[in-house]
Amino acid sequence: MDNNQKQLGLDISKEVAQGSYSNLAIITHSHSEFILDFARMLPGFPKAEIFSRVIMTPEHAKRLLNALQDNVVKYESSFGIIDLDNQPKGGTINFGDFGALKGGPNNN
Residue 29 forms beta bridges with which residues? Predict the structure, then answer.
């Protein structure tokens, strides 16, 4: 290892190591934070369930964006282009059209 490289030690519990499947991410932000809600939409269920929320600073959100971009580029160089031709453009949803989230600050 190069003397300039830092080593990071991480611990992970068995429960967290198993992971959680998400096919929907809802991202909102304020001046001081980004909020990432991870949810699952499953056939036969009327609505998605948010099961995890991650809150981070704008600086960390941008680092995450850069890390994801780097990993998508590496993935596509190994496995081919990820096709989004049949997906909605933009990737954002106006949640004002859906009313308040159940359990949110305005709707317990």
Answer: 34
